[in-house]
Write a structure and sequence with these properties.
Elements: H1 2-11, H2 15-147, H3 153-168
Helix pairs in contact: 2-3
């Protein structure tokens, strides 16, 4: 070992200086560790955590988006079914209302026809009565002119009855 010490001293190597340099190097490494490397590692760790959180949030967001799209698709399908049901129900209601209105219109038309027939019958009876009265009046006047004297009421009634019998046959 002496040989190595001698060789090193000829080269200008001093163990005391080497030991001092080693201690200085370790002090600088410790200072750098606490003042530089540790904060840099903390920043890198925080960034990595933020990146991981962002990736996880993106994955969750993607899942929620898929769920929302599925939900939206289901809601749209339900809305289409409901709208079709509403349209079908509205169509059925319109047919029912149309049928009801048609029945009411037919009933109203039948009522108008019945009323018109009743009024026609009433008018016919009134007209028949007027014709009978006019005919009786004419026959009575003609008979009075032919006979030359006034007929009493009972004779006029008999003429009226006979005339009606002959007309109704």
């Amino acid at each position: 070992m002496d040989f190595i010490n001698e060789l090193l001293s000829k080269l200008g190597f001093d163990f005391g200086v080497a030991l001092a340099n080693l201690i200085n190097f370790l002090i600088i490494v410790l200072i750098l560790e606490f003042l530089v490397f540790k904060p840099v590692r903390k920043v890198m760790h925080d960034r990595q955590s933020a990146i991981n959180k962002g990736l996880e949030d993106a994955r969750l967001g993607e899942l929620k988006l898929k769920e929302a799209e599925e939900t939206a698709s289901e809601i749209i399908k339900e809305a289409r079914v409901k709208s079709k049901d509403i349209i079908d129900e509205t169509y059925k209601r319109s047919e029912t209302i149309s049928a009801e209105l048609s029945v009411k219109a037919e009933e109203k038309a039948d009522e108008i026809i019945k009323k018109a027939k009743e009024e026609g019958e009433a008018s016919k009876l009134v007209l028949k009565k007027e014709v009978e009265d006019e005919m009786t009046n004419l026959v009575s006047k003609l008979t009075e002119k032919v006979i030359g004297q006034d007929l009493d009421q009972s004779v006029k009634e008999k003429i009226k009855e006979r005339g009606l019998e002959s007309v109704n046959k």
